[in-house]
Amino acid sequence: MTIRAVLWDVDDTIFDYARADHTGMSAHLTAEGLVDGYASVDQALGRWRELTTLHWRRFEAGGVDFQEQRRDRVRDFLALPGLTAAEADGWFERYVSHYEAAWELFPDALPVLDLLADDYRHGILSNSSLHNQDRKLRVLGVRDRFETVLCAAELGVAKPAPEAFLAACTALDLHPSEVAYVGDQPDIDARGAVEAGLRGIWLDRADTGGRPELKRITSLRELPALLGGPTRFGAPSTFG
Question: Which residue, 233, 143, 221, is CA-closest to 179?
Answer without folding.
Answer: 233
